[in-house]
Structures are given as structure tokens and as C-alpha cells.
Design goal:
By secondary structure, this protein is of the alpha+beta class. It folds into 3 domains: about 100 residues, no CATH class; about 80 residues, no CATH class; about 60 residues, Rubrerythrin, domain 2 (Single Sheet). Helices cover about 15% and strands about 20% of the residues. It has 4 helices and 15 strands. The strands form 6 sheets. It has a 4-stranded antiparallel sheet. β1 and β2 form a beta hairpin. Keywords: Metal-binding, Nucleus, Ubl conjugation pathway, Zinc, Zinc-finger.
């Protein structure tokens, strides 16, 4: 390949890859010895196998061999092709064995997470308790939940820690995909699917319920009926007057409550 060294390094940049990444190499999966554009391509194919016990996922750090997309040379993992001299990825992480030509993503490796992230290192911080990188806007401004990202999205059940989708962090500290979160709100569901706490400030909504209760007279038989409730937002247990519209927590004024059995008093 003729040209200056820089021209050779940049040859084919952004011209190769798959729907997941722009890169100038493919990987050989050590688990099945097959060649794929990236680990996501491998996982999608492997998880479609007819026999369930044949399905598997690629461990990114196990990759030892890559194939240059420009000259088809198979070689040990490295940034530059040993044959034609192109950069197989403008961004290269030798820990994750990760290549990408698209630097606009703001790629960076987080040592605490142990994987590469997107969005720019300066825009994120790693929360030790939550065990993941969060937007800098949440620094000192979120509820910590231990390993909050190391679970599956409660809506679509995709694993959250290394998801490629935008993530929403709710008031309670639990996480889910941003698209799943928005869809949940469209369906008038305002409670965390994991802990049932309200996912946003519901003050205005509680005021509307106050007005509806005031305008809705209960029948005489139910007007003085009391029930015990548990508040999903503050975990307080109290006895309140029953109303068909909802029961209001006396402690935090939330209507995110549920009726429970009366507490059992200790026997003398």
C-alpha cells in the first residue's frame, strides 16, 4: 500500500464494520472458532441457535486473533495490521479487545467498570457503591443502590451493565433503559418496577387526587371505614379512612400506597 505512513494508517477509516461499530477488523471467537464483525454480532447469532444448550456469549477479553478487513490477514490482537499497516481501529483498547473508528462517541476505558464506555470521560464519574459510571450531573445527586447496573432491565430484560442503550436512573436509584422508562410513563406507570417507589416528583398528581377525593362522596356504609396501608414511598404503616379513589400516606402525603392486614398486637 503506497502513500505516507499517516495515509496508510487511515486507509479505509469508517469504511468497514457492522451495525454496531465502524472498524477495520473482524474477530475470531475462541469459544466457537467462528469469525464475526464484533462480539455483539457473535452473541446475536449464537443466541439464535436452535439448541438452547448451544447458545452462549463471547467473553470480550478472551479474543486472541483478529482478521484485517482491508487485506484479510489473520493475526494476534493489536492496533495496527501486521501486513498492510492500517489502523484496525482509530480507538483501540487492549484490555477489552475493542476497536472503533468512530471517535465522535467519546470512547474511554473505565478501570473500575473494567469495560469501555461512550460519552467522554469528562462527562462521567464512577460511583463505587453503585458499581458503574454515571453522568456527572448525578454526582452527589442520586440514591446509591449497590451494583445498581448489574441487573437486567425490568422491562425488556436486557443486561444493563454493558448495554449500548441510554440508561435512566430513577429517584430510588434503580436503573432501566431510557426508552423503556419513557414507554412506561406513556402508559401512566409511575412506580419503579423493582421497588415500587415513585420514579419522579408526584406532588402535582397527588394534588389532583386530593381534589378528586374531595369531590367524590363515599356511601354512608363506607364513610367511616378505616384500613391499614403501607406507603411504597416512605415505608410508613398507618391507619387511614378508606376511599375508592386512593389512600393517602399521613407521613409523606403520597398516594403510592397499598392496603395491608392490620398489625398483630403482642399478646399480654
Amino acid at each position: 500500500m503506497e502513500g505516507t505512513n499517516d495515509e496508510r494508517l487511515d486507509f479505509g477509516k469508517m469504511g468497514y464494520g457492522c451495525k454496531h461499530y465502524r472498524r477495520r477488523c473482524m474477530i475470531r471467537a475462541p469459544c466457537c472458532n467462528e469469525v464475526y464483525d464484533c462480539r455483539h454480532c457473535h452473541n446475536e447469532a449464537a443466541n439464535m441457535l436452535k439448541r438452547i444448550y448451544d447458545r452462549h456469549e463471547l467473553v470480550r477479553s478472551d479474543v486472541k486473533q483478529v482478521i484485517c478487513s482491508v487485506c484479510d490477514t489473520e493475526q494476534p490482537v493489536g492496533r495496527t495490521c501486521t501486513n498492510c499497516g492500517v489502523n484496525m481501529g482509530e480507538y483501540f483498547c487492549d484490555i477489552c479487545i475493542f476497536y472503533d473508528d468512530d471517535l465522535d462517541k467519546g470512547l474511554f476505558h473505565c478501570d473500575d467498570c473494567g469495560i469501555c464506555r461512550v460519552g467522554g470521560r469528562e462527562n462521567f464519574f464512577h460511583c463505587k457503591k453503585c458499581g458503574s459510571c454515571y453522568s456527572i450531573g448525578l454526582l452527589g445527586n442520586h440514591s446509591c443502590v449497590e451494583n445498581s447496573m448489574r441487573h437486567h432491565c425490568p422491562i425488556c430484560y436486557e443486561y444493563m451493565f454493558d448495554t449500548m442503550k441510554d440508561t435512566a436512573v430513577m429517584k430510588c436509584g434503580h436503573t432501566m433503559h431510557r426508552d423503556c422508562y419513557n414507554e412506561m410513563l406513556k402508559r401512566d406507570k409511575f412506580c419503579c418496577p423493582i421497588c415500587t417507589k415513585s420514579v419522579m416528583d408526584m406532588t402535582a398528581h397527588w394534588k389532583l387526587i386530593d381534589e378528586e377525593i374531595e369531590a367524590t362522596m363515599m356511601p354512608e356504609d363506607y364513610r367511616h371505614k378505616k384500613v391499614w396501608i403501607l406507603c411504597n414511598d416512605c415505608n410508613d404503616t398507618t391507619e387511614v379512612y378508606f376511599h375508592i379513589v386512593g389512600q393517602k400516606c399521613r407521613h409523606c402525603r403520597s398516594y403510592n400506597t397499598r392496603t395491608i392486614a392490620p398489625p398483630v398486637l403482642p399478646q399480654e
